[in-house]
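thoughts on my protein:
***
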Amino acid sequence: MENLAKCLDNIRVPTANNKVYKDECVFSFDNPETDTGLYVSLTSFIGLGRDHVQRHYQKTGEVIYLHIRREKHEVSSPQQGDGPEKKITRLAIGVEGGFDPELGKKKFEYEDFYNIVVLPSFATIPWPNTELPELVKQSVQAIIDLPSAGKLAELEALSGTWDGEARVVSKYASGLLQLDNGKKIPPTGWKCEKCDKTENLWLNLTDGSILCGRKFYDGSGGNNHAIEHFTVSNYPLAVKLGTITKDGKADVFSYSEDDMVEDPYLIQHLAHWGINIANMEKTEKSMVELELELNQKTNEWAALQESGGVLKPIYGPGYTGMTNMGNTCYLNSLMQMLFRIPDFVHKYHEGADQIFANASGDPAEDFNVQMAKLGSGLLSGKYSVPPPAGGPVDADPPGVCPAMFKTLVGRGHPEFSTKKQQDVQEFLLHLLSLLERHTKNQANPGECFKFGVEERFQCGSSKKVKYLTRSDVILPLAIPMDAAINKDEVSAYEARKAEAESQGKKLEPDAIVRPKIKFFSCLESFMQSEVINNFYSSAVQENVTARKTTRLSSFPDHLVVQLKKFTLREDWVPIKLDVSIEMPDTLDVSALRGDGPQPEEELLPEPEVRPPAPVMDEGVLSQLADMGFPPEACKRAVFHSANSGLEAAAAWLMEHITDSDFSAPFVPPGLETAKFVPDSEALATIISMGFTKDQASKALKATDNNVERAMDWIFSHQGELAEEVGSPGPPEFRDGEGKYKLIGFISHMGTSTMVGHYVVHLLKDGQWVIFNDNKVALSENPPKDLGYIYFYERL
């Protein structure tokens, strides 16, 4: 008590405005359940594991801590059959309605124990204690009572967002036009008005037409008559017959909003067509149930998770799993992959102590600290130990929970701040952008992925050429479906499937025959030249047809290959190509090396003045934007389709949706190096906000003279603008031989990047290991042909 009384000046009482880190150490994954418990500072409210509290005391002088230790006790589970069966309603893992990873596991209750600890001697004072100074009692009680920083971050992420399955109210529901055409809909016996389909039928709530829905990617479903009707009528809302329940719920689709929606007036809208919901019974699967069924019909889930046998768990340094916090498998898979790469290991595991020692401010808000925390947690082996002797050998290890990391890297991002499933390729680009921002004047491990892309344009009129070099970190490869080497087998399988469906049967998942395509067919497709229309030729000073060829000007230490499996069907429905790609264990991409300008080539002169901006059809731009495409992508589509209408522009978008510059600022081809002239009014606006003319010009050049985007660009490039503004030299890339070996691949299960599950297979110590969230095991049959993103290391 005497030591405690000397330190009262440093004790604070937290309020609702303070962040209290009492769930987990900010430098490690120690928590109250760890044997040594968690120490929470009564000064900064930082939570610390035993390995870090001494250093924090020495650095900050914070003396008094609340020690929290949590014990868990097994509780009896309800008998089988007690209560209603938990039904899977969502294609997701670890979220409400999705696959429950805890289903069937033992249940526990928790009990917390508290003590006051005074450093440096770790003197302990029991809590509660009436002899404690009032200030100490107030501080401790507030720490116990206030929600943790982790809980507040979770609530913030959910605020104002939807979770990927919840449906928004349609803007067409209120005041929906319903025609008085005399139609009345019977309670049963429905049939499509344009074909013989009797399932997957949709009632248009405006004119009462009953038409079949879209054809699914496996060939089942309808004949697209409902959406065809919308393109003619523009009647927006339709309800799926057979999904209507007595409580007024049903699947409602808005064609204009291109999404499943809520219709608060559904009961009245159905009554207009003579439908009394009191007499309705759900007889058809909802769209979510169909999505689940379609994925269960394919053997992709089983193959990628290697669920056909019992895999041997593996423990120790580098074999630590990660908890799935509800659709974070994209993050888990990528971080496991990155910490297989030496650059990341060196900086964020071997150099972790130095990063921790240099930490200042709030460590939970420090990007490098949280990267080092994750690297140490995954690679140290501290959180990957075999189950105790005599314990259940099939018990899943808890793994580490990257909650602080996810909160930090997702903060402010419209997608990664939510609990929705995300595309791992987009997350990789986001993370590499954060690395570049937070490692100014430091070693950036993300440089190991960066390479130069050489683009050669040849003017069709003058035959003169132009070379541009840009940087990239992922090699995206289109999948040439016509290059399949087993077309006869696929055709025979499709015929068997069609015959089985005509008899009301289904083929077993093991009978699936996927198109097989050699990886080098994907490379050949990448190497082919493409025709560019409306290319501005400075030689003839007009738009011409040009030919574009893409090569690599450097080969990175680690080559990331993305197979462009996600695309759009002709009716703009997102699909994933179900293909098998023969990925090589060793890879030679030397043929992709660009040679640069050749002696016999004549270069196009640099344009002195930018010609007038191309005229674009504003109506088509607006329609494409309403479909959800980025504005810059819409400009590209209208430009490259030569203002020839909505259908041509949409076709271009479907073909180029996975281009790396899809949503980047649009510059008409041929004008990429033209002299930039900032808009005088926009320039004055930014200068008036306190920025220099050079900074304002640089921002406007990067955003095509758009003031709003220029301001966003400035705030996201503070470090770059703080440096002297001048003509940047050519980007520097690591380079070497183009020979690589496969060290890991990330696979996706599901029909869309917004649903499903990710796992990663890594080659470690000469053996393949599967990381499926918190489960880590030796891989018996790594499905290299079904991956999505592949990581190669230079030989």
In short: DSSP finds 23 helices and 26 strands in the chain. The longest helix spans residues 487-502.
